[in-house]
Amino acid sequence: MGITIKRWVYTALGTTFLFIGVIGAILPILPTTPFVLLASACFVRGNPALYKKLNQHPTFGPILQNWQQNRCIERSVKKKAYLFIVASFTVSIIVAPLIWVKMLLAGLFLALIIWFRSIPTHVDIAPPTENH
Question: Residue 94 contacts by C-beta under 8 Å, 6 or more apart in sequence?
Answer without folding.
Answer: none
